[in-house]
């Protein structure tokens, strides 16, 4: 029964995201809006409910299946990709570098806060 609740939470967030994007004509994909709503809900709740955790872990175990449609898209639209390969390569390079830099900054900040807490409690 917990698993069903986890699916309801995920699908509910996606549904609300879809409704918001369509009704407000937002320029974002509805699953992204749904994920942001889920994140906000989890931050308010303070922890991940057991059912949602089980469902998320199950989906993550089969994440590789989500690359099949992307691979098919690459094959079907090869001519379009070939025509704009430089733009695509630059976008991938820049976004990858930005992601690595931001992740490193966040990690460094989190580690410094964690270190402060450990030293502060010993004093």
UniProtKB/TrEMBL annotation:
Domain of life: Bacteria
Intracellular or extracellular location(s): Cell membrane
Keywords: Cell membrane, Membrane, Transmembrane, Transmembrane helix
Transmembrane region(s): 27-46, 58-79, 85-108
Cited InterPro entries: LrgA/CidA
Membrane topology, from the record: Multi-pass membrane protein
Protein name, UniProt field: Murein hydrolase transporter LrgA
Species the sequence originates in: Pokkaliibacter plantistimulans
